[in-house]
Amino acid sequence: MEEDRSTKGFWIIFAMIFILVPLFMFSREAKRKRDKKAEEEVVSYEENAKELIPIEEDDIMAIPERENDALYASVSKFRMHMKSLSDYDDELAISIERQNWDDIGKYAMLLKSTSPLLFTGKRETELPREFIMLDTAFHFQSLAVAEASQSKEMVKMNIEYEKLQKTCDDCHERFKEKE
């Protein structure tokens, strides 16, 4: 009786695999065909658009250079805000050294809630894409440090904190004015 159950279970699983694997393979192939067809349609639409609206090199409008390439609207305000970030980072480093997990979480969240992007006083479209990406990485790593503080594992904490420091260093290397 026991062998009958295990044999019956085997045949049920075998039948399911026998049916589901070909269905899965068929669905993947169908998706590939749909994707290829969509890509071909996009190419044909682009070619049709070029035929309907011919554009010569002389007709392409030049993008004017930005007059003000400064990263921020007000130097003093930007530096003041970055100083507060530096203070939070200093307190975070002290908290990590002391393994004060509550303070680590607190200062990591304070760093996460601040935004160098907002400190610039400019709209996002006026800023370099790389600066925006570094700001996003900074927020992500601040959150990673806060999460690491919840685990109370020093190795994990140090790894996440080093990554946070790297986002700061990368941004400063690229955008901080030499004094």
How would you describe this structure to a colleague?
With 179 residues, this protein is mainly α. It has two domains: 2-59; 75-175, Four Helix Bundle (Hemerythrin (Met), subunit A) (Up-down Bundle), CATH 1.20.120.10. It has six helices and no strands. The protein has helices at residues 2-52, 75-98, 101-113, 116-119, 129-151, 154-175. The radius of gyration is 28 Å and the shape is flat. The model is unreliable at 59-68 (pLDDT under 50).
In terms of topology, how is this protein built?
Layout: H1 2-52, H2 75-98, H3 101-113, H4 116-119, H5 129-151, H6 154-175
Give a concise summary.
The protein is an all-alpha fold and 179 residues long. The chain is built from six helices and no strands. It starts with a helix and ends with a helix.
